[in-house]
Amino acid sequence: MAGVDEAGRGPLAGPVVAAAVIFPPSYRNPDINDSKVLTAHKRERLCGVIEREALAVGIGVAEADVIDRINILQATLKAMRDAVLELSFPPDFILLDGLNRVALEIPQKTLVKGDARSVSIAAASIVAKVTRDRIMEMYHRQFPQYNFLKNKGYGTAEHRRILKESGMCKIHRRSFRLKDTDSRQTSLEWP
User: Fold this and answer.
1) pLDDT digit string (tens) for 43-54?
2) CB of 190 within 8 A of CB of 168?
3) What CATH number has the domain spanning 2-137?
4) For labelling alongside 148, which of 4, 131, 133, 167 has CA 20 to 30 A away?
5) Taking a C-beta distance cutoff of 8 angstroms, is the pair 137, 148 a contact?
C-alpha cells in the first residue's frame, strides 16, 4: 500500500510537490506525523528515516508554469500520479490524503486528514514538504530578493511587499490572485 500526500498548494511561488511512500506491512513509527505539526529539523531527520526504512519512495513535482496552465488542483493530482509512477514497484493499493483520486488503474481510497490517520500518508507529507523546502532553497539562491529561504513562496507580508516593489520572477504562479492588505486596493493584478 502506498500513502500519497502533497506540499505547496497554497504558495504564490514554486512547485507543488507530492510524495508516495510504501512501508513494510505493519510498519510503525510513532514519530512520523503530519508534516505541518513537526519542526523543520524533525522533518529533515524523519525524511532520512523514511528514505531508509520505506520499501519505496516516489516524488512528483508540478512547477508554477504547469499550475498556471492546468490549475492547482489538476497540477496537484498530476504530481501525486507522478509520485506513484516514480515508485520502484507499483503498489497494490493507494491511500490519498484529501478528497480526490488520481488517474491510475490502481484501487485507491481518499482520507480527509489522512496525514493524521495513516503512517504512510504522514510519511509522504514529510517527504513532500522536505523536498519542496529544498527546491525553494535552491530557488532562493537564484532569486535572493524574494527571501524564499524564509517564506518558501508563501504570501507573507514581506513576500507581498517585495512582489509590489519588484514584480514576479519565473517561479511565481501567475494564475493566483491575492487580496491586498492595503485597504486602498482590493487585489493585486499580475502582469
Assistant:
1) 999 999 999 999
2) yes
3) 3.30.420.10
4) 4
5) yes
